[in-house]
Amino acid sequence: MNRDRVDRLVRATLYEGYILYPYRPSSVKNQVRWTFGGVHPRAYSAATGGNEPWSIQTECLLRAPDDCLVTVTVRFLRPVARIAAAPLPVGATVAAVDRCGLPGFHAVEALHAGDTVVRTWEEAVEDSVAVGTQPLDRLLEEPRRVAFTRPGHRDVENVHGPDGGLVGAVVRDHKPLDGEILVSAVRVNDEVARVAVVISNLTAFEPAGDGARERALRHSLVSTHAILEAVDGRWISLADPPDDLIAGASGCRNVGLWPVLVGDDDDHDDTVLASPIILEDHPRLAPESAGDLFDSTEIDEILSLRILTLTDAEKAEVRGADARAHALLERTESLSGDDLMRLHGTIRELRPVRGEGA
After folding, report:
1. Most C-beta atoms within 10 A of its C-beta, which of 91, 166, 185, 330?
2. SS (H, E, C) 207-251
3. With a cut of 70, which residues of the chain have pLDDT below it?
4. What are 23-68's pLDDT values in tens digits?
5. How far from chain centre, in Å, is Cα 26?
6. Do the beta carbons of residue 24 and residue 317 sit within 8 Å?
7. Is 61:193 a contact under the CB 8 Å cutoff?
């Protein structure tokens, strides 16, 4: 497996839809977020009638002997509430319970620090859980169960103006998260096993009250992915299985995840990426792309040119959205004419067309 290639592919899909053009928090399309790969607290899922899942899973076919080694890693994002907080005016008081939780400050919609606007919004942090490596015969005998816990905590970052004076602070509120990953395997025939990965959210949560979805998301896994690797084994395409495994492939149950082969080519099918976004086998990133635009199916040239047309006020809001949006803007503004020409289009390959009408 080419780990660097797989990591770049995972990062592209992990941040799909993270923030969309025009990359401003106030934009309508950025009001409802975290719509891919959500694994939510079980109580919240029940309150929605199961429309918001608390458990997702992938099942894949693996052609391998019993001593094949299987490694599973789950990668996801955790939403983090970012609260802009301004110092309290002298003599002013606020309610005993304030969203920012910072003595001497109160929550505000935005802080203005020179040309940058820092807004109350939601960011995300990357996270992963390594289930570890197991011989296939051990998974056939007994499932591998891994529980994980992320405690809640708060981070505070001071915000200074152009003159160095304190404008306010940013409070990042990380809510606790408890989950479980279950990996199991059963034989389909003497040569092929079906490997299953189930990812569940077991966080305690009270769904009653206002803003249930917003509160639940802060205890959720979002954009959840699973990476399955095999040593001395070969994964089978579920989109194009061999004739003798069509029935076995159709029997694989995938809920919230879609597994595709991500090896370098058909001769290196040692890795599967199970993504909440449906991909084809052996997906590739365009080498001409200068970086992530959080919409991997969009045309880089169009988005880049549109970004360059944003007004100064709009760019200030982008810079204040978060570090990733800020980096996107800076990278786009630094593109040279040659860089933009490389985005204009390319031919990957030419293939003959055969058959009637060719």
Report:
1. 185
2. CCCCCHHHHHHCCCEEEEEEEEEEECCEEECCCCCCHHHHHHHHC
3. 1, 93-98, 264-267, 297, 348, 355-358
4. 988 889 898 899 889 999 999 999 999 999 999 999 999 999 999 9
5. 21
6. yes
7. yes
